[in-house]
Amino acid sequence: MITRRQSLTGMATLGAATLGLAGCSSLRPGGGAGGGSGSDGGGGGRSNTLVLGHAGSETDPRQKGSEQIKELIEERSDGRITVEIHANSTLGSWEQMIEGLQLGTTHIVIESILALEAYTDLAGVETAPFLYESDEQFFGVWDGELGAEIKASLTEETGFELLGNMFRGARNLTVNSEVATLDALQGLTIRTPSTQTMVDTWQMLGARAEAMPWDEVYSALEQGVIDGQENPLDTAAFNALYEVQTHCTLTQHMYANYHFLMWGDTLAGFSEEDQQIIREAADEVGRTYTERTVASLEEYRTTLEGEGMVFVELEDREQWVEKVSPIFEELPDQVTTWVEQIRAQA
User: What is the model's pLDDT at position 215?
Assistant: First the structure.
């Protein structure tokens, strides 16, 4: 099995080269600065390059999703649209890649709604803790009218399009000690994404929340700078966190999808035909990605256990839920309405 340490070999040089290219690039649909393809009516033979970035490794499920959408878009557009894939955060942190969507240095970023919390407080609908009780409840929301409504509202608020629903699974806590109760969590330093709701969640639970770029997490765990992190099981498996973490507590404190994020003006620059190709490809990849995740969750756990990671069930889940209840009192009215609708589907 390829280790995290091995997967990072040579990445510094590659990342520098890629960032250099991104910094001097003015890629836009249509191949020119600010040019669109709408006037071509989907034909015309003009090449349009979409730069796609994500923070996962080449073995991460996001890479498979990237390769699939590349194949679908290029085939269905008869080569009018090409997709360049950049994994391993070689285009920058996810925050930088999201900013790049507006600047035109990236065109597609695989991230979840939490990445938009800096742009709208409506994104709190995803980061609100302990909102779902099962996978089935989550699918009922995001495969239905409520999920479509939430995505449309986020697009209206931020200008970002959220294409496809790629199920990640529930987020769980990995640490270097047994954390089965709230008392055992007290004082531990836990890495979180740089979103306020998630930082607040872990601080309310009694941990010290440390917002940190993902590409720094492995070394921080290895050096003892932080005690743990929280993510779906695939992240722990594909990033070899079993090398630097001994336990996984099944907190299942948050569920999320990945989406193909695009800047709305960029997508609108394509012809109607090509916009449909991109949207339908994203939806198709989302279904495949979700099926693969559901089928692989037990495999991820087996892999982690086989590498020595011990799985722990929460003994006092009600106390965890109660501790974070103040977060819901601070949510915007619209998010509160969505929360009530989501809970009604439990």
Answer: 86
